[in-house]
Structure formats: structure tokens, C-alpha cells
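Lecture notes, unit on binding sites. The following record was shown on slide 14. It pairs a sequence with nicotinamide-adenine-dinucleotide.
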Amino acid sequence: MPTKPTVLFTGGAGFIGMHVVPMLLERGYRVRLYDSMTYRGNRDQVESMLGDDVELVENDVRYGGSVQRAMKGCESVIHFATVSINKSVADPDESIDINMVGNHNVLAAAAEEGVRRLVYASSASVYGDPPSLPMAEDGPINPLTPYCIGKYAGELLCSFYERQKGLSWIALRFFNVYGPGQKTSAYYTSVINHFINRVRNGEAPIIDGMGDQSMDFIHVHDVAAAVAAAVDTERSNMAINVGTGIQTSVAELAALLIKAVGSDVEPIFNPRDVLVSRRAADIARAADVLGWTPTIAVQDGMYELVKESLAG
Ligand SMILES: NC(=O)c1ccc[n+]([C@@H]2O[C@H](COP(=O)([O-])OP(=O)(O)OC[C@H]3O[C@@H](n4cnc5c(N)ncnc54)[C@H](O)[C@@H]3O)[C@@H](O)[C@H]2O)c1
């Protein structure tokens, strides 16, 4: 029987990774998770998956030699290992180390091994605060924190190894990912948990300013499908947005969650100056290159989340 191709998956034990692994198995891959399990790695869930087709290398992407050894024999790579945006502002040293040195270790080893494809988790935050919507891949880039700078540098490094060693890569710029398994400490989307918890306790959500800052919430199941498609698609060497293309303001989110919980509280608006940022992805390239479009409407995804939270 021919052996299954192995995907090296750094940071695969985290929130999004745990949704991607079953899709890779369905597509006939073996998965070698490479995860330090220090930040948010989901140990119980990972252990329940371990077996012939899923293995765990518990190590840090900052150790280049270990990354090279884990890369041996891998057919493709998904690189997610990262330290989050909020930690990056509090501790730029660690962020630069993991998000720049770690990125380089993985990309260099992938190029050296001659893998068929590398899929890199980039972020919508590389755009900074966009001058206009929707945000298209070729629009202005303005990364504002060490995390975002590291994410964009990773894209440039992919491009370097493409020229140097023929690496075939896709950088997926994820927008605001939400859904089951999300950590309550998640940076942008923590507002969802915060609102749900308050409304459940009969308390009104508190909104800074007018609540007109917006995000493009994309369900983790749709994100995972985009990742799996990027591993397999024929075209490569570009950044691709992964969002819905629809912006939801914080005020709309509060109204939606209040309705989903079945409450009649009214949000409290806290009058103060806030920097109003808006986000909505241009997703034409994702449809064209990946044959991917989002399938879960924000309202349905949020309702499901509330249902789970009420049941749990
Ligand atoms: N969740 C979002 O909304 C979002 C948005 C944009 C981009 N992204 C990117 O998508 C990827 C996955 O995000 P997520 O939400 O699943 O993150 P997550 O924090 O849940 O998972 C990250 C994983 O990386 C591992 N890790 C951290 N540092 C490591 C290191 N030095 N060596 C090895 N493993 C390490 C952690 O243990 C964890 O399992 C990340 O690269 C993230 O930056 C996420």
C-alpha cells in the first residue's frame, strides 16, 4: 500500500489547527504536529487524535535543528506556530524570536527539504488600519505591532525562498476567526466571549464609543477548509485573504448576541473617543485560486456559539 504523504503542522495543536487536522486526515494525509504546547496547545484534544496518522513532536520552532529533523520526509508544511498579538506588544523580544526566527527556521527547512507546498498563517493585521474597504491583497500594507511585522516578514521570507530554492507557498491572511474551541484570551474576538458572558448573567454589554468599529468575523470551520484547499491547490506564491467580506460592527455584534441569548438587555454605550477601525476582506482571490467561499453566515455561527455556551 503506498504510504500517505505527511504534512508537518507547526502550531497545529492550537485553536484553528485542531479544526484543520480532521480535514487533512479526510484528504488522505498523515499529520506530524510540531507544537511547544506552551501557550494554547490543546493537550487533551491532541492526545485523543494521536495514532498511526497523527503524531506530536513537542518542541519549539525556535530550535532550528529540531525543526530540520521534523521536516525530514514531509511532503508539505503548514506553519502556524506563533505568539499572539497581545503578547507581542507586552513582550516584543519573545515575539520577534518566535515569529521571525521561528518563521525562518521553518521556511528554510521546508525549502531545503524541497516540500511540495508550504501554507503560512499570515493575518489581516498586516494591513493595519486600511484607508478603504474591502481590503485587497495588493492594497496598502501597514503592520503596526511586532506580531504583524513578523507576519508580513514571514510572507517576504516565503518569497525569498521561492526565488532561492523554488519553494511553493501560500500565505493565508486570516481575518477575525471565531468558533468552537476559541480561547477566551483571543485578542480581537475576546469581545464575543465577553459579551456572551455578560448577557448570560443578565448584564448589559458595555460598548466603547458608538460601537461602529467593525471586524470581519470568519468561522473557524471555513478557515480550516481554506487551509486544506491551500495545501492542495495548484496555484501558489501569493497571499490570499480568508474572511467573509462582510463587516460587523461591535454594536451589531452586541445586538446579535443579545438576541441569540434571548435577553432583552440594552447595551450601554460608554462615551469616549475610540480609534474606529474597520475591516472587511476582498475574497475574490480566495474564490479564484482556492475555489473557496465562506459557508457559515456570521449570524448562524454566533447563534451556534451562544447555544454551546448556554449548554456548557
Ligand atoms: N485566531 C485568529 O483570529 C487569527 C487571525 C489571524 C491570524 N491567525 C494566525 O493563525 C495561526 C493559528 O492561530 P490560532 O488562533 O490557532 O492560534 P493559537 O494560539 O490557538 O495556536 C498557536 C499554537 O502555536 C503553538 N506555539 C506557540 N509558540 C510556539 C513555538 N515557539 N514553537 C512551537 N509551537 C508554538 C501553541 O502552543 C499553539 O498550539 C497563528 O499563526 C495566528 O497568528 C489567527
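Take-home: DSSP finds eleven helices and 13 strands in the chain.
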